[in-house]
Amino acid sequence: MHIVQFQHTRVPVEKYGGAQRIVVWLSQALVELGHNVTLLAGRGSSVPGVNVVEVDAEEVRRPAFDVYQYVNGQVDVMHYHGLVDHPPNVPYVATLHGNLGPGGAAPPYVICVSENHARRHGTKSYVYNGVRIDSTSSAPRNPTSISSSRGCIRPKAGASRSRRRSRSIFGSWSPADGGRRSHAG
Hints:
Number of helices: 4
CATH architecture of the largest domain: 3-Layer(aba) Sandwich
Radius of gyration: 16 Å
Shape: globular
Number of strands: 9
CATH class of the largest domain: Alpha Beta
Helix content: 10-25%
Strand order of the largest sheet: 3-2-1-4-5-6
Number of domains: 2
Order of helices and strands: EHEEHEEEHEEEH
Distance between the termini: 18 Å
């Protein structure tokens, strides 16, 4: 599957950038799973193991944006890390990393970062974000208190459900269905 991700800022970042770190980790994990990943990101971006194309974020946000000006071959899905102003010319989804404010409802193409986050934004679509163990300054002292999948820290109780939902969103779910399903699996 060819997945094109879009992050409007430079990645990686240092000392901050929760959403930017998630973009890097997700891109690398998708490559590890065998997907062809192209990351459209701000000037100066570089992610080991990922095909990075430096772009001006405003070009991607324009109404006439054509992803094929930046990538070759078929694009199966474009994954934005923020709301979409103008739909691209390929199937797409977006992760909402922040909040929309009181009463804000997520558009149907949005995936939230937790069940609570999704509920607060009027949707049922979510995939838990994880934190890579190797990126933290100190590893957990009690390794039995966590469950690890592809180097991500998750509470034991939710780990299998999180992995199942991640596989369903990036494995068998198709944005071509017009967003009628919130998730598969």
